[in-house]
Amino acid sequence: MVEALLGVTGSIAAYKSLELLRLFRSNGWNVTVVLTRSAAKLIGVESFRALSGRDVAVELFPSKRVGTGSVEHIDLATRPDLTVIAPATANIIGKLAHGIADDLLSTILLAIPQEKVRAGRVFFAPAMNTNMWLHPVVQENVQKLTHQGYRFIPPETGALACGTTGAGRMASTELIFRLCSISLNQLPDLKGVPVLVTTGRTEEPLDPVRVLTNRASGLLGTEIASVLMAAGADVKLVAGEVTVPLPPDAIRVRTAAEMAATVLKLLPGVKILIMCAAVADYQPVKTARSKIHEAQLNIKFKRTKDILQLVSTAPHRPLTIGFAQDDSLTRARKKLQEKKLDLIVANPVNTAGAPTICPTVIFHSGRTRRFPEMSKSEFAVQLVKIIADLYQHKNKGAG
Asked: What is the distance between the alpha carbons of residues 199 and 324, in angstroms, rounded to a whole number?
């Protein structure tokens, strides 16, 4: 049974924490809620008590204790498997960054054992005005805490309570829950490693209403990106069309050409490239300006840009992982060699758009590792562990 601590601070987004608490509880987690005084003024303590089934902690020196130990804030810091602060204000981030403990929640955060911090078991989901979030001091505090091992789930861009539009809206409760769940696995330490992941499918327009595309859902790529985020990596996700939710800072593209341009632009700052997107192999020679009718169905095609081939000849070549829909592994092995990949994942054609996968991982040396059928979320954890081992081995060799 997972024991979690949910810290809620005085942001207008505090009401979303009730939904996050509901997600935790519906998945069988035990949750202790700690409210700051400001949060308690914004939203009723009784709501959190009813949903959690436990007393809610607010005061550092309460008349009734919530923890099971003799020193409440130490018990609440050490007992949970993970801690998530959602929403996290600039105030609580600044307090922790500068070692200030002047209320119950800030005291708990300072008392969390560092091995839990380094294991990626303490999450912050910031929510605040755009100017506050982008303020250099706040960003400096975030970077300082990130360097120490604390995990930040970036806020979304959108309409804010103050009436402006910009970055600062708390990430979705589904994303927060997913990252917290992933963190319960034994993940490698990829803190600060810049990683680029592509996912989804590209679309090549035939005319104003039709496109050439495929059935890829984008599920595997988004799951890989989530695991990498939980492992502390600095992840950039480039996504074509998808049928799954994306993290708030995903970079959207549509065509193979747009994806190629985006990948090559970001490539110089990347240490690991994971090309999970299903990129269309062909595009029409000419896109019709008006809807194509039956008499015009003789369409000529040409090859799209081969992104992995472009990467293989680029001046900066990161650790590169490719994917292939291939039942026999023949095409996957050829692609591994021709594109100079460090690793390729071959999966059966019938897994496109499916929630499960039955993959075979082929290393540059030719060694293979077959996995049984499993969920794509489960495989994402296994794959990130393999990639982390390759990355660490490559760095040792370079050193």
From this structure: 13
Q: What is the C-alpha separation between 306 and 9, in angstroms, rounded?
A: 48
For residue 360, CA distances in Å to 166, 180, 394 come to: 42, 28, 22
pLDDT at residue 34, as a whole number: 96
Confidence grade of residue 79 (pLDDT, cut at 50, 70, 90): very high
Q: Among residues 131, 45, 141, which one has the least CA distance to residue 91?
A: 141
* Res 376: pLDDT: 94
Query: Residue 209 carries which DSSP code?
Result: S
Give me the helices (H) in 33-121, please. 37-42, 45-52, 72-78, 90-97, 104-111, 114-118
- Do strands 374-375 and 356-357 pair parallel, antiparallel, or not at all (unpaired)? antiparallel
Reference 320, options 330, 334, 307, 304; nearest CA is 307
- pTM here is 0.85
CA–CA separation, 91 and 102 (whole Å): 11
Write the CA distances from 260 to 187, 257, 311, 345, integer angstroms.
30, 5, 9, 20
Q: What would the mean pLDDT of 352-366 be, rounded to a whole number?
A: 90
34 Cα distance to chain centroid: 25
Which of these is catalytic: 162, 180, 276, 358? 162
User: Is 180 in the active site?
Assistant: no
- Using DSSP's 3-state secondary structure scheme, residue 237 falls into strand
Least-confidence region, from 114-128, 149-163, 366-380: 149-163
**pLDDT bucket at 276, cuts 50 / 70 / 90:** very high
Q: At 332, is the secondary structure helix, strand, or coil?
A: helix
